């Protein structure tokens, strides 16, 4: 299937999910600048933008941390990702910082994630950094981000004398839809 068509379907699905969740927004309260522990569950679609390593990924992630009461949130996240291109599973581990600009039910924000990703089948280990911006709508969040990965693959495992390593750099564009507790 065409890579662009797959990404378009993922983006359309994300917007449809957000549209169907919109009526529930009236029943939710604003998190505003409340102080204390908070967490989220997110669904992230990723499109690798490099010509030699194109691919699409889907992640289910959870973030846990502390909101300082002035718009600043610091925490850590993990999840499980799946590559539609290589049929590989990925495990991200990262620190997340986020700053909301207003204490209103609809609040724009900026954020950054720093961490690593671990791939299963190709013994993949990568460093990643991801600046982002988005909009919190009460307890729901829509986030757009750019992600840079730099990593190393090892393989094939279990074959004497045939181990190899390859280094890579990836650029990706992401969209996430989340719910904050």
Description of the structure:
With about 180 residues, the chain is mainly beta. It is built from one helix and eight strands. It has an eight-stranded antiparallel β-barrel with strand order 1-2-3-4-5-6-7-8. It starts with a helix and ends with a strand.
Low-confidence stretches: 23-30
Distance N to C terminus? 37 Å
Oligomeric status of the shown chains? Answer: single chain
- With strands numbered from the N-terminus, the spatial order across the biggest sheet is 1-2-3-4-5-6-7-8
Structural classification: mainly beta
Main β-sheet, in a few words? 8 strands, antiparallel, barrel
**Helix share of residues?**
10-25%
**SSE pattern:** HEEEEEEEE
How many beta-strand runs?
8
Q: Kindly state the mean pLDDT as a whole number?
A: 79
How large is the share of residues in beta strands? over 45%
From the alpha carbons, calculate the radius of gyration and give it in angstroms. Answer: 18 Å
Question: Which key features would you list for this structure?
Answer:
181 residues, globular, 1 helix, 8 strands, single chain, mainly beta
């Amino acid at each position: 299937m065409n890579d662009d068509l797959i990404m378009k379907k993922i983006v359309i699905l994300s917007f449809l999910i957000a549209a169907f969740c919109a009526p529930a927004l009236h029943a939710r309260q604003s998190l505003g600048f409340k102080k204390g522990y908070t967490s989220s569950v997110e669904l992230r679609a990723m499109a690798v933008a490099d010509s030699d390593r194109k691919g699409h990924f889907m992640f289910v992630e959870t973030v846990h941390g502390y909101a300082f009461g002035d718009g600043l949130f610091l925490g850590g996240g993990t999840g499980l990702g799946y590559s539609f291109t290589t049929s590989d599973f990925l495990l991200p581990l990262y620190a997340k910082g986020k700053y909301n600009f207003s204490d209103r039910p609809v609040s724009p924000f900026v954020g950054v994630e720093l961490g690593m990703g671990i791939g299963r089948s190709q013994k993949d280990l990568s460093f990643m950094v991801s600046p982002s911006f988005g909009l919190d709508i009460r307890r729901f969040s829509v986030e757009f981000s750019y992600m840079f990965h730099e990593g190393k693959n090892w393989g094939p495992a279990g074959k004497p004398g045939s181990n190899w390593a390859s280094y890579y750099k990836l650029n990706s564009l992401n969209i996430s839809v989340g719910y904050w507790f």
